[in-house]
Write a structure and sequence with these properties.
The chain is α+β, with helices and mostly antiparallel strands. The protein has one domain. It has 2 helices and 3 strands. The chain has a 3-stranded antiparallel beta sheet. The radius of gyration is 18 Å and the shape is elongated. The N and C termini lie far apart (54 Å). The mean pLDDT is 87.
C-alpha cells in the first residue's frame, strides 16, 4: 500500500500518516512527499482555477440577466 503524506502546518513540513497530528492543522492527503511539499503551489493553482470559473460563471449570469 502506498504511503500517504500530509503537510503539517504547525511544523511546516511533510509528514506521513503515522506522524500526522490528529488535529486539523494539516493539509492533504497527498500521494507523495513531493506533492505534500508542493502544497502551496497546488492550492494557488486551484484557487486561480476557481477564480477563473467564478468570473466565467458571473459573466454568463450577467448576460442572462440582460436578456441576451
Amino acid at each position: 500500500m502506498a504511503e500517504t503524506w500530509w503537510w503539517d502546518l504547525a511544523q511546516g513540513r511533510a509528514v506521513t500518516s503515522d506522524e500526522r497530528p490528529r488535529d486539523m492543522e494539516v493539509l492533504g492527503p497527498y500521494p507523495s512527499r513531493a506533492a505534500a511539499e508542493a502544497w502551496k503551489e497546488t492550492a494557488e493553482a486551484r484557487n486561480e482555477a476557481w477564480d477563473e470559473a467564478d468570473e466565467e460563471w458571473e459573466g454568463t449570469d450577467t448576460e442572462s440577466d440582460d436578456g441576451a
